[in-house]
Amino acid sequence: MSAGKSGVDIKLLELLVCPLTKGRLSYDAAAGELVSEKAKLAYPIRDGIPIMLISEAREIKD
User: Fold this and answer.
1) CA–CA separation, 62 vs 52, rounded Å?
2) pLDDT (tens digit, 9 = 90+) per residue, 4-14?
């Protein structure tokens, strides 16, 4: 298993989807977040663990 800079396994990141839209997520290494463009939400990664709760996601403003 190979981990990215966030400490999260890259294969895991490929498998995760947005819990709201079931769409793809992109990894924002600078912010340490997984971003759902469709839902306009950013899910935090804390201590190498993606927090995939809608209530914990940050809303992305245009």
Assistant:
1) 22
2) 555 678 888 88
